[in-house]
Amino acid sequence: xxxxxxxxxxxxxxxxxxxxxxxxxxxxxxxxxxxxxxxxxxxxxxxxxxxxxxxxxxxxxxxxxxxxxxxxxxxxxxxxxxxxxxxxxxxxxxxxxxxxxxxxxxxxxxxxxxxxxxxxxxxxxxxxxxxxxxxxx
Length: 137
Description:
Elements: H1 2-23, H2 29-41, H3 45-73, H4 80-99, H5 104-121
């Protein structure tokens, strides 16, 4: 049973990674992202609306964070450590909010999808240095 769950999560994560990569070229936006999550996490209509609200709030916070970092840098390089710490705090707050909406299985799948998304979407380390991340084959 545990092996089946693990295989399911891996399969969903692989699908999510493909969707995340494809989304960079699409113009579907947040609703398209939530539609995909609804399928992958088997969300109810109520959950879908709640997840969309939470993720839209996270997006707005992230956008504001990066705008603030850009403005504070004044044309120079932003403080990547501070931005990274704030990014992690926003992500943790989002996870806390989602934990009140999703069941344990859905939350585990969401966390796995996020890890896969970060793995495919951010190949460099702090500052985007190429080759800073390790291969996990």
